């Protein structure tokens, strides 16, 4: 990658569409924990653990979509740098503080797997690396992924020396039953579950997703400085190769990842090491496929882009709607629905958010969460209604 001189920052329709698409994947990845909260006490064990739905979610969704979001965070940061100019440091510091506060509130009140606090802290690191050249940023991201994968393989090797340590811990049935009881017992009971579980799961998210998210921040930084979305003709010749690697290598590796998750601890660790690299290939193939589809059928981008423009509001919104369906805040259906029905709820929530996003943006420039973050970031009363 080579850095390109940038024009004045503008809204990029393709980025919004990709972000709107990623929201759907994140919703599918997260909703299982709302539907079956007992797995939250297993520190990230996969919910909906049996059947074709579980296989499809694990293979096609898990670990594929948060990396897209992380990449877009890094890319969007370059657009903010162009827009903010000499005020980038102070504004990014305030933005990260706002994200952190929002993430803590989100984690305690709605979704224990919140990632905004992680993004806030890593955003500070990205701010310190903002002058890094694109090629250097790509190399640094590759080093992070390589070292992380090597650690997983090292741990797998150590478990061979201690076969007893490679056993996968079984889900505690009593703890799972208590979790479901708290989640469905009413608003105060659900809040108790959140307060008890959020700190532990937040640490799991930071450790499990932090290195990969930072690597993707750096890849996004490099791509933004190289204006990959603004000038797609620069990489159009790479489309066949990206698709081949994604579906020819990344997809079989994703199948292996799903199979390894049901095997012994050593095999699980090997699967995680492989997935650490190949999930990026499959995620990249998803993005390129979507961009090619939008190029041929622009209406697809028109449906997805509004949700991507108000992504923070939708991220919080999907947690609100999931809570209203599955927890004591609303219908308390956790543990009651079959996996296919849970996916149906996810589809309904996604459709509602797509519709609301489009309607909201007919009369407003930003989503409500975006407006609050922008006002705090700029320390000004940014207009929320379109004119």
TrEMBL record:
The chain crosses the membrane at residues 20-41, 53-77, 97-128, 140-161, 198-221, 242-261, 273-294, 315-334, 340-361. It comes from Planobispora longispora. Residues 223-378 form the DUF418 domain. It comes from the Bacteria. This is DUF418 domain-containing protein. The keyword tRNA processing does not apply. It holds the Pfam family DUF418. InterPro entries: Bact_Transport_Assoc (IPR052529), DUF418 (IPR007349). Keywords: Membrane, Transmembrane, Transmembrane helix. Coiled coil: none annotated.
